[in-house]
Amino acid sequence: MEKLVTCFYQRPEAVSRLICFPWAGSGSAHYAHWGKLFDSSTEVYSIRLPGRESRSRESFAQNMDQIVMEIISVLLSKLKEKPFAFFGHSFGSFTSFATAVKLKEICGVEPVHLFVSGASAPHSKARDSLQTTLALGDEDFLKWMTTVGGAPAEMLQSREILEMFVPVLKADLRVLDNFVYEKPSGTVLSCDITCFDGTEDVPHDLEAWKELTSGDFNIYSLPGGHLYLKEPANEKTIVNYIAKHLKTTEMTYL
């Protein structure tokens, strides 16, 4: 499990778990630090995908199914132990959703809450093809990323960071671009879904997420662009919101 999951604050006696899925190009460290922001009732797992951090020598995932099946094969026994929720931003919204759907389909297990951020629903027509963008040279590609708020501008100043970051980011975006989700006639999940988004990010079709669950649905906008969740005030708001909802869920299991 240590290969797939980073958990800086292990809490085996926790009542629930929050599983966090990285945005495109990122590793597991950012979300792993969230563990200190929750109390002892919640344990935070941060997913580490192949091709980064301690898995840097591994080949990148080629498709969404490869990501989903690794997560399920490694974490299924843990997910059956106690209530769990998923959080994902941007690319992580899609990987968390795809994992939730496959879990329910093959195991009859689903998160108590799906928290998604900075992404249109997977079946929405608002999703754009990334083929032209992925064909750009590395520097032009990263300049495009800074214009849409997906990468800090200071990355352009470091050749070393550029060479490390771009291949990982492009690999994740290829997976995303090839991920096609055909929504069935009914809802696919029964858990609650909450969408977060930055007010200055490019527009996302958040309402379409409501079509994917029979559970409650909410949308919350916070100030900032695509990486708005890295702002301390926004991070605190998101964590407090998740903690509140997990507390409510935990009470039903005690």
In short:
It catalyses: (9Z)-octadecenoyl-[ACP] + H2O = (9Z)-octadecenoate + holo-[ACP] + H(+). The chain is an alpha/beta fold and 254 residues long. The chain has helices spanning 29-32, 64-79, 91-107, 131-134, 138-147, 159-178, 232-253, and strands spanning 5-6, 16-21, 42-47, 84-89, 113-117, 192-198, 217-222.
Explain what the structure shows.
It comes from Microcaecilia unicolor. This is S-acyl fatty acid synthase thioesterase, medium chain. InterPro entries: AB_hydrolase_fold, TEII, Thioesterase. It is an enzyme of class 3 (hydrolase). The chain is α/β, with parallel strands linked by helices and about 250 residues long. The chain has helices spanning about 30, 65-80, 90-105, 130-135, 140-145, 160-180, 230-254; strands spanning about 5, 15-20, 40-45, 85-90, 115, 190-200, 215-220. It has one domain (about 5-125, about 180-254): Rossmann fold, CATH 3.40.50.1820. A seven-stranded mixed beta sheet has the order 1-3-2-4-5-6-7, sandwiched between helices. The longest helix has 22 residues, at about 230-254.
Features:
254 residues; alpha/beta; Rossmann fold; seven-stranded mixed sheet; 15% strand
User: Class, according to the CATH hierarchy?
Assistant: Alpha Beta
Low-confidence stretches: none
The CATH fourth-level homologous superfamily: Alpha/Beta hydrolase fold, catalytic domain
Task: Give average pLDDT, whole number.
Answer: 91
Question: So, CATH architecture?
Answer: 3-Layer(aba) Sandwich
In DSSP terms (H or I, runs of 4 or more residues), the helix count works out at 7
Number of strands: 7
Strands ordered across the widest β-sheet:
1-3-2-4-5-6-7
The helix-and-strand class reads alpha/beta
Radius of gyration: 17 Å
Number of domains: 1
Helix content: 25-40%
* Overall shape: globular
Q: What order do the helices and strands follow? A: EEHEHEHEHHHEEH
Residue share in β-strands: 5-15%
Could you give the distance between the termini?
A: 27 Å
**Main beta-sheet annotation:** 7 strands, mixed
Assembly category = single chain
CATH fold group: Rossmann fold
GO biological process, one term: medium-chain fatty acid biosynthetic process
Pfam family, one: Thioesterase
Keywords: Fatty acid biosynthesis, Fatty acid metabolism, Hydrolase, Lipid biosynthesis, Lipid metabolism
Domain Thioesterase: 17-242
